[in-house]
């Protein structure tokens, strides 16, 4: 069931609220999220994921406090990659004990902050990091719960920038070094080895690479058990893909069930964890933008819109496809091929190329599936204030982030004396 639907009068609406009304009221560019969609996405996991298995939402996908608050209320733990994300989780009412801390270059400050807050687990990416965590925990007089991130070397068949499970990238510890690394971790006085984790990439649409990775991880868990290093949990990371275009949908229920079946048969005592980001928030948000001008040249038509790569960088950065649809039924009789481009001074600043659209200046367009890696990757490039964010819940629109004011952009800058 789609959250953003076309009403009988042609208006695109969420919970019965026309996006056009919201755009007129709150201005554009505007991120609009649906609480109903968020909840449905959560339930699609939770339904097939009984306790004690856990879900740690990957905060980087969308870290607005209200989104974190809703997910915490639904029962989510959190996967964070910085001290900043930890602070957000705590500010939103999340439980530190349900937090796992991923990331390749955790600083001393971040590790200290996480230990002090009492996070559930560090997902450790190298032996150097392990030594650092052990030393800080010793200073603080505590024991740090750790998992080692192992690189299972499977090809996730996704965009090279977001594939992380192959040998040749910066993430995790190579499978060949895994056993020795766990043996080393188990020898340290101020860490307790509680798990193993992996993350093979993002926007993966087939179940097979996940199950391949799971089998490799389970073989490792078995080997560790033989060496008297029993693990409590296996965290398979995130990466479950969503439909941006006409892709066959990811078989989520099948993945969840087959993963549990594998574990039940091989390591029945293990608790499973996942770190979904995109799959929870991606389709629950849109970016609404207004057409400033149409510009026709001999062989091209551009729709110049008020949202750019600073608001949504995925098309520019990954050539990612987002559907772009008119927010209200068009009065223009003819759809033409248009490039939907932003106001930023870069040729790469586009939201969509060669889209079949009937638009005129002043129209609003919705860029679909913008709930994940949308606002969180936004910048102030070209001194553009970041967009406002709304969450629609039970037919009510709530401003969950005000549009940035210009003065905020340089308030920390100083003129020379
Ligand atoms: N866990 C770890 C350790 C991760 O690195 C990531 C994402 C996730 C979980 C969540 O992955 P998800 O379920 O959302 O696929 N900016 C890119 C995506 C980068 C993903 C980075 N890591 C994009 O816009 O497509």
TrEMBL record:
Residue numbers binding substrate: 278, 314, 318, 346, 373
Keywords: Amino-acid biosynthesis, Decarboxylase, Lyase, Lysine biosynthesis, Pyridoxal phosphate
Transmembrane segments: none
InterPro entries per record: Ala_racemase/Decarboxylase_C (IPR009006), DAP_deCOOHase_LysA (IPR002986), De-COase2_CS (IPR022657), De-COase2_N (IPR022644), De-COase2_pyr-phos_BS (IPR022653), Orn/DAP/Arg_de-COase (IPR000183), PLP-binding_barrel (IPR029066)
Enzyme class: lyase
Reactions catalysed, as given in the entry: meso-2,6-diaminopimelate + H(+) = L-lysine + CO2
GO molecular function, one term: diaminopimelate decarboxylase activity
CDD domains assigned: PLPDE_III_DapDC
Modified-residue entries (N6-(pyridoxal phosphate)lysine), positions: 60
Active site residues according to the UniProt entry: 345 (proton donor)
Cofactor: pyridoxal 5'-phosphate
GO biological process: lysine biosynthetic process via diaminopimelate
Domain Orn/DAP/Arg decarboxylase 2 N-terminal: 38-281
Family indicated by similarity: Belongs to the Orn/Lys/Arg decarboxylase class-II family. LysA subfamily.
Function: Specifically catalyzes the decarboxylation of meso-diaminopimelate (meso-DAP) to L-lysine.
NCBIfam families the UniProt entry points to: lysA (TIGR01048)
Descriptive protein name: Diaminopimelate decarboxylase
């Amino acid at each position: 069931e789609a959250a953003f639907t076309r009403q009988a009068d042609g208006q695109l609406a969420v919970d019965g609220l026309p996006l056009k009304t919201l755009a007129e009221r709150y201005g554009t560019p505007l991120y609009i999220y649906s609480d109903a969609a968020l909840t449905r996405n959560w339930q699609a996991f939770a339904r097939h994921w009984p306790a004690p298995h856990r879900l740690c939402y990957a905060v980087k996908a969308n870290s607005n406090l209200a989104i974190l608050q809703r997910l915490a209320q639904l029962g989510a733990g959190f996967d964070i990659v910085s001290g900043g994300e930890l602070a957000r989780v705590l500010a939103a009412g999340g439980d530190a004990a349900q937090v796992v801390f991923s990331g390749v270059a955790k600083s001393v400050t971040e590790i200290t902050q996480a230990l002090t807050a009492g996070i559930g687990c560090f997902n450790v990416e190298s032996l150097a990091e392990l030594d650092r965590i052990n030393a800080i925990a010793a200073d603080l007089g505590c024991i740090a719960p750790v998992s080692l991130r192992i690189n299972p070397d499977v090809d996730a068949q996704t965009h090279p920038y977001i594939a992380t499970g192959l040998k040749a990238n910066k993430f995790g510890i190579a499978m060949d070094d895994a056993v020795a690394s766990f043996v080393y971790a188990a020898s340290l006085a101020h860490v307790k080895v509680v798990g193993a984790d992996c993350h093979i990439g993002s926007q993966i649409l087939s179940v097979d690479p996940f199950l391949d990775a799971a089998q490799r991880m389970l073989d490792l868990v078995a080997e560790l058990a033989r060496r008297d290093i029993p693990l409590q949990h296996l965290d398979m990371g995130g990466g479950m893909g969503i439909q941006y275009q006409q892709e066959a949908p990811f078989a989520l229920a099948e993945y969840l069930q087959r993963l549990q079946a594998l574990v039940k048969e091989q390591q029945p005592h293990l608790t499973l964890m996942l770190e979904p980001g995109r799959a929870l928030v991606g389709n629950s948000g849109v970016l609404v933008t207004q057409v400033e001008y149409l510009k026709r040249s001999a062989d091209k038509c551009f729709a110049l819109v008020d949202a750019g790569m600073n608001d949504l960088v995925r098309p520019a950065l990954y050539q990612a496809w987002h559907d772009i649809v008119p927010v209200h039924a068009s009065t223009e009789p003819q759809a033409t091929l248009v490039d939907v481009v932003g106001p930023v001074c870069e040729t790469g600043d586009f939201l969509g190329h060669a889209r079949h659209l009937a638009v005129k200046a002043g129209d609003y367009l919705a860029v679909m599936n913008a709930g994940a890696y949308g606002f969180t990757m936004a910048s102030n490039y070209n001194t553009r204030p970041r967009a406002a964010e709304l969450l629609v819940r039970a037919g009510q629109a709530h401003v969950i982030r005000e549009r940035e004011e210009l003065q905020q952009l340089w308030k920390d800058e100083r003129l020379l004396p």
